[in-house]
Amino acid sequence: MHKIAIYNNKGGVGKSTIAVHLADALRRIDLKVLLVDLDSQNDCSLFLGLKEEPENTFFNLIDYRYPANLSECVTEVRENLDLLTNRNYELIEKDLHRATRIDNFLDKALKDAAKTYDYLIIDCSPSRSIINSAILFYVDSIIVPTQLEVASIRGFSDIYNYLNDLEIDTAKIKLVVPNMFDARTKESQDNLKELESIFEEDILTEPINRRTKITEASKAGETIFEYDTDTQLEQFYNLVERVVKLG
């Protein structure tokens, strides 16, 4: 099972959109995927059209008093795609502060996932937090979506500093995804060139264009694959191909 964090310490870069679309695309090639929503905004549920909050969420999985099994906490949202939502985000943080170690916390909490899933994708909050620290220790790969604006690009140093502070190898950052690219603007073009000067081709993916249809799909609780099959989807498929090559 390959474990992936979708992380950036800056909000508004499309993390949840990337996480949901990556999960949906992987399950479409007959891979079993668990999407774990550990973003305090809980956008994955919205983007996948989950109408009712599940009875059991991530907190029930780690509740030291009455822990639930993973199978009791996940919700099947599509064929081959399960979602593990979160609730009581502050209580999850408190449990982590109580833990003796955070570097293996999720290994224990999600120990049963490898029996069922090919990929486990975690949507993270845009912050330094004890929850994110536990996630970054746990995963095999980090994918960083970034908006093509100066502030987002400058923020990369903070991500690398965060990993260094945790003594996590920065080589865990496997892919950087330029998101919401608008080829009509000089700013997008210039900032894409800036990213190309920073990152090697094996890390930087092709940009994903800014499309109104993607926003509409998310509001409708669908992925773009479901909402508008006429939209050019090559960029998402290219991302999926890059992810599969990671192993």
TrEMBL record:
Q: Outline the extent of the AAA domain.
A: 1-167
Q: What Pfam families has UniProt attached to this entry?
A: AAA_31
Which CDD domains does the entry mention? ParAB_family
**Matching InterPro entries:** AAA_dom (IPR025669), DNA_Partitioning_ATPase (IPR050678), P-loop_NTPase (IPR027417)
**What's the superkingdom here?**
Bacteria
Extract the PANTHER family matched here. Answer: COBYRINIC ACID AC-DIAMIDE SYNTHASE, P-LOOP CONTAINING NUCLEOSIDE TRIPHOSPHATE HYDROLASE
What protein is this chain from? Chromosome partitioning protein
What organism does this protein naturally occur in?
A: Orenia metallireducens
